[in-house]
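Much of what follows relies on a compact textual record of a protein's fold. The record below shows the convention in full:
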Amino acid sequence: METIGPAAARRAALSAQGFAAARPAGPITRRHLMRTVDRTRLLQLDSVNVAVRAHYMPLFSRLGPYDAALVDDAAWSHSARRPRLLVEYWAHEASLLPVADWPLLLSGAKRRGWWRHAEEIAEREPTLVDDVLAAVKELGPASAGTLEQALGGTGVPRPPGSTWWERSDVKRVCELLFGSGQLTTGTRVNFQRLYDLPERVLPPDVLAAHPADPDEAARALVLRSASALGVATEPDLRDYYRLGPARSQQAVAELVESGELEEVAVRGWRHRAYRLPGTRVPREVIGRALLCPFDPLIWERDRTERIFGFRYRIEIYVPEPKREYGYYVFPFLLDGELVARVDLKADRAGGVLRVPGAFAEPGADVPRVVAELAGELRTMAGWLGLDGVVAGERGNLSAPLAAALR
């Protein structure tokens, strides 16, 4: 078994995620989009829009400024000339993924999600499932509220602060049908999911591949994880698509036996690691990027700490007086290291990107970090259609950053 150092493991992870390649010099196209998704394998969805929605940011981090409509068209529209390339499903969390991967996640390889708790509704009201499916078939892409009204419900919005358990029976059945693959997302309007039948959304060859064999699908998903992660422990591989431990361990063992995965030791790592045979490790990784909290490079916090020595926690649900760094903090990647943390807010009414807090990591080259960070923040503001960047007062980078932005 080969032994590699932690720096090589870090460069392998960055390369696998697309950070070893320079950003394109010309306009970004669908080809660039899918080349990036082929590396990350998926884009996590999240409702927080304080800076930018989570599924748009990883592409900007790797490609630079691009037209977000490329993602919308790839995920939520279809034509003969521009076929749908991405589909929604529960992968790491709610995610956009290549349409060909949809049968793998519905195969039974992945643990059943929280939507299974709605099965008691289906048992209590068996006709409701049929009614929802019939309404979607008749109406076309429809929200849960529209379906509730069509089925004679009130469609009253949930009170602020209410939980998933307080959703209507229709909404919970929609999520059950989405989880079981009987419904999918036809499109989104103002980020609201409109449910549709898979046969009206997905290509015939993808539909014909469902259901896939769960053991075969688990191996395919682990290989996708390994490709996206570069070098990874079995728990890392398992987490990428949220597979069950036994299923993941079996798949890894079978892939090692078949030679499709190889074992590798990383100095300082407690667990054995794995990689695809022939994985190349660049000698250096040059460049800069702001990473949203749901970027696949950093979403598994233990792995982020192991690879980068960077302890990162999202503080959205922490009361404001107790937050250490801020509400929606972006780590700043510079030449293969996480060197700073930046709390960001897109002030759309004011037309500026606000930086309430900016914090350098210990040992960071502050003048260089400030210069590169100021440049990337200006680039991000322009991409978001904002006129400038305004630095706040929190953090040891705030004062020099404010000066650099003047």
Confidence is low (pLDDT under 50) at residues 154-159, 162-166.
